[in-house]
C-alpha cells in the first residue's frame, strides 16, 4: 500500500430534514435523519478501502458525498489535498474525471435506449473532446480492457443484449474511461450470480494494478471485503463503529456490532446465527432520526451498561490504525 493519502474525510455529516407534515411544522418538532453522522477516514493512493454495514446505515449516502454528487451538511472532504467543497469550475471538472462512481444498481444506470458505444462515448466526448475514429478506437480498446471482445462488436449492442456480468463490465468500463484516480464502487457484485462475482472482482483488481487506481468498495458481503480491501470501516446508523486494517478487523473484532455482523455473515444461515447469538434481534432498534447522545447500538448490544444510554462513545485507537467506538471494548477484548 502506498503511503500517499488520496482522500480524507473529516467529521463528514449528511442530515436530511424529514417531512413532518403540517403538524410537525406547527409543533416545531423537526425530524432530522442523521444519515452520515461525523465520519472520518482516509484512503491511500492505490488502496482499496472497504465499507460494510447493514442496509440503511448510510453507505450510499457517503459514496455520493465522496463523488460530490451531494454536499455534506458539515465536515470536509479532501481529494488530493483539496477541499472538494471549495473547488471552482475547473477544479470540479477535474474532480468529476478523477473520481468516478459505480452505482449500486448497475442495470438501472445504463440507458436502455443507447448502445454500449454511445454510453461510453458520452464522457469521452464531453471531457476529452474525442470524435470520429479516435473516439471509436478508444471505445473499442476500453471494451477489450474489460474483456468484452471484440470491442467493436460489443459497442453496437444494447444493454438488454448483455448478460448481467457483461453489463457490469460496461459499467466498470464507463467508470475507468477517463482514467480516474478513485472509483467508488457501491455494491459492485451484489446483483450478480455467484459464479460471476469472482471474475468481476478479478477484473477490478487487474484495473487497479494496471492504473494505480484506488477504490472505496461498499459491500454487504464480508467475503468481498476480506478479499479486496486493505483497510475497512464498519458503519452503523451513520457512524463508523470500527475501522482498521481488514486483517485486524477479521482477527480481532472489538466492537459488539462488528462481532454480531461478522458472526451473522460467516455462517451459512444468517437467521440461525442471529437467533443463537441473540445479538441482533433484541430490543427496539435505535434510529438515526433525532438520535439521543448515547451509543446508537445500545438497544441491540449484549454488553450494554448505564453509560451507554447517556454518552456517545468516541473512537479510541485500540491498536495502531485500529479504532473502535465502544465504551467497553477493553473488557470485551480482555474477555476474548
Ligand atoms: N435524499 C434523502 N432524503 C431522505 N432520506 C434519505 C435520502 N437519501 C438517503 N436517505 C436515508 O438515509 C439513510 C441511509 O441511506 P443509504 O442509502 O445511504 O443507506 P445504505 O447503507 O446505502 O443502505 P443499502 O445497504 O440498503 O444500500 C436511510 O435511512 C435512507 O432512507
Ligand atoms: Mg446503498
What does it look like?
With 336 residues, the protein is of the alpha/beta class. It has a single domain (5-113, 158-335), classed as 3-Layer(aba) Sandwich (Rossmann fold). Helices cover 38% and strands 22% of the residues. The strands form two sheets. An eight-stranded mixed beta sheet has the order 6-7-8-3-9-10-12-11, sandwiched between helices. Bound molecules: adenosine-5'-triphosphate and magnesium ion. Magnesium ion binds at residues 59-60, 104, 186.
Strand and helix layout:
Layout: E1 5-18, H1 21-27, E2 31-44, E3 48-52, H2 59-66, E4 74-79, E5 82-83, H3 89-98, E6 99-102, H4 116-128, H5 132-145, H6 151-154, H7 164-176, E7 182-186, H8 194-211, E8 214-218, H9 222-228, E9 231-236, E10 239-245, H10 246-251, H11 256-266, H12 270-277, E11 316-319, E12 322-324, H13 329-335
The structure holds adenosine-5'-triphosphate and magnesium ion.
Amino acid at each position: 500500500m502506498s503511503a500517499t493519502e488520496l482522500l480524507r474525510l473529516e467529521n463528514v455529516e449528511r442530515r436530511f430534514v424529514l417531512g413532518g407534515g403540517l403538524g410537525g411544522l406547527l409543533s416545531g418538532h423537526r425530524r432530522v435523519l442523521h444519515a452520515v453522522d461525523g465520519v472520518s477516514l482516509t484512503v491511500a493512493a492505490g488502496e482499496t478501502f472497504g465499507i460494510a454495514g447493514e442496509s440503511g446505515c448510510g453507505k450510499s449516502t457517503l459514496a455520493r458525498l465522496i463523488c460530490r454528487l451531494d454536499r455534506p451538511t458539515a465536515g470536509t472532504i479532501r481529494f488530493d489535498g483539496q477541499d472538494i467543497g471549495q473547488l471552482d469550475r475547473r477544479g470540479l471538472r477535474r474532480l468529476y474525471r478523477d473520481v468516478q462512481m459505480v452505482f449500486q444498481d448497475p442495470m438501472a444506470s445504463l440507458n436502455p435506449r443507447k448502445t454500449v458505444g454511445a454510453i461510453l462515448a458520452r464522457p469521452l466526448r464531453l471531457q476529452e473532446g474525442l470524435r470520429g475514429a479516435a473516439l471509436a478506437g478508444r471505445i473499442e480498446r476500453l471494451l477489450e480492457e474489460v474483456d468484452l471482445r471484440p470491442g467493436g462488436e460489443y459497442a453496437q449492442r444494447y444493454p438488454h443484449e448483455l448478460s448481467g456480468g457483461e453489463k457490469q463490465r460496461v459499467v466498470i468500463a464507463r467508470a475507468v474511461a477517463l482514467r480516474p484516480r478513485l472509483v467508488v464502487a457501491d455494491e459492485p457484485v451484489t446483483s450478480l450470480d455467484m459464479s460471476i462475482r469472482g471474475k468481476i472482482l478479478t477484473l477490478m483488481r487487474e484495473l487497479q494494478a494496471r492504473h494505480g487506481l484506488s477504490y472505496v468498495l461498499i459491500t454487504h458481503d464480508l467475503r468481498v471485503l476480506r478479499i479486496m480491501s486493505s483497510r475497512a470501516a464498519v458503519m452503523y446508523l451513520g457512524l463508523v463503529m470500527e475501522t482498521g486494517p481488514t486483517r485486524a478487523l477479521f482477527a480481532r473484532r472489538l466492537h459488539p456490532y462488528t462481532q454480531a455482523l461478522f458472526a451473522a455473515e460467516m455462517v451459512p444461515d444468517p437467521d440461525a446465527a442471529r437467533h443463537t447469538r441473540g445479538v441482533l434481534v433484541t430490543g427496539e432498534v435505535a434510529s438515526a432520526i433525532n438520535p439521543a447522545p448515547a451509543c446508537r447500538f445500545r438497544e441491540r448490544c449484549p454488553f450494554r451498561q448505564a453509560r451507554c444510554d447517556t454518552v456517545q462513545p468516541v473512537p479510541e485507537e485500540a491498536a495502531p490504525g485500529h479504532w473502535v467506538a465502544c465504551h467497553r471494548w477493553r473488557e470485551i477484548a480482555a474477555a476474548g
